[in-house]
Amino acid sequence: MTPPPYVLSQGVLAAIGNALSQAFAVGIGTSHEASKPHHEARPRVPSIRQRSKAQLPSEGHARTIVEGRWGMCEFTGKCANIIQSWNPVVLGLLDSLPYDEEVVVWGRRWIVKTSTLGERHGYGVYACEDIIVEDSASCRREGPTLFPYGGPIYKRRHWNMILTQHPKWKTFALEMDTFASSTRRHSDGRVIDGDPIHSGNIAGFINSTMGTQPKRRANCEWVFVEGPPPAPYGQTYHEDHCLVIATRTIRSRDELFTHYDWN
Ligand SMILES: C[S@@+](CC[C@H](N)C(=O)[O-])C[C@H]1O[C@@H](n2cnc3c(N)ncnc32)[C@H](O)[C@@H]1O
Q: CB 3.0 to 4.6 Å from 150: which of 1, 28, 91, 113, for a disulfide?
């Protein structure tokens, strides 16, 4: 009888681990790992030897390994389609997002630097030019588009599976499908993994007005848009997308704030 996986010898497990890590050593977009002083050290995916017994492949079920946000994620075969390859440039985002340096994203100049909330709250996004929202914009969502909220898109239940494997990840996940059920296109809600370190997602650095002292006023918000982003960005890549929209005039050197529960 074949022994159950939990009695495999350490040597066999180590050999499997080595083979797998050679085959799938490259994570998605880790190019600016070096310049992230405000971020916690990224927890490395444990080697197979360190993993709990429950995460080892079950008997008779083919294991598929796919690239995760950084490092590897493992899933059984039926979940192998969860990862969409992500290239920030396709959506007009930068493949590397420097700090303290002006960048141009979607035709406007921005800088990512320490937030006005204070160093312990990390970075924030600042405008480097005025962005005028006309009083005549009757609906706040008619304001100018700033940039997309970009990153690989997962089904909610698959994202939850990834998180159970990586409980220490600081996540920047944005729910795409929170709008009314009558207009839902997907039965399973989708999530954008907007980690700015790995996806060039500048929107991931926008801080919340929640609990701020003195009170900050939101000057932008993220919205769901059905259909692909405007040309020339992500035309064929995206079925739907999320955008950050200015909701009131933003002056050069203003930090962007929106309202979300960051706790
Ligand atoms: C989407 S990130 C924003 C970018 C973040 N400052 C960074 O450097 O990664 C959300 C995180 O920023 C911090 N944050 C955002 N809004 C905040 C607020 N109003 N007060 C304190 N911390 C806040 C919290 O640590 C939160 O988990």
A: 91
**What's the domain count of the chain?**
2
Per the CB < 8 A criterion, the answer to whether 103 and 146 are in contact is no
User: d(Cα 178, Cα 175) in Å, to the nearest integer?
Assistant: 6
The minimum-distance atom of ligand 1 relative to the CA of 212 is: 19
What is the reported pTM?
Answer: 0.73
Q: Encode pLDDT of 10-22 as tens digits.
A: 444 444 444 433 3
ipTM above 0.95, yes or no: yes
**Ligand 1 centre distance from Cα of residue 112 (Å):** 13
Domain span at 66:
5-82
262 alpha carbon to ligand 1 midpoint, in Å? 6
Q: Which domain-ending residue is among 82, 110, 134?
A: 82
Which residue has its alpha carbon closest to ligand 1 atom 21?
A: 121
Last residue of a domain, one of 82, 101, 132: 82
